[in-house]
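Lab notebook page, bench 4
Experiment: in silico fold of construct C2
Operator: M.H.
Input chain length: 84 residues
Purpose: comparison with the prior construct
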Amino acid sequence: MTRLRLRVSPKAKRNAVQGLRGDALKVSVTAAPERGRANDAVIALLAEVLDLPTSSIALVSGAASKDKVVEIPLSSDEIARRLA
């Protein structure tokens, strides 16, 4: 299991993983930050990019913040390889 720091930009033009910014992975989603929609979109995007089921990715902290931490059942090396 790896905990991954995210910096999320909601209400973006498209869903995208934009790469590392400092110690966090920059992610943009089209969903608005209302009633957890942006959080759901972030998890769905990460699941698609990392080829994992959405149920295997857990939001650990930052539900109401642009800075989030998710837990992913892969090693950090495997995450980097799949994002490349």
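Observations: Residues 37-50 form the longest helix (14 residues). Strands lie at 2-9, 16-21, 24-28, 58-61, 67-72.
Next step: discuss at group meeting.
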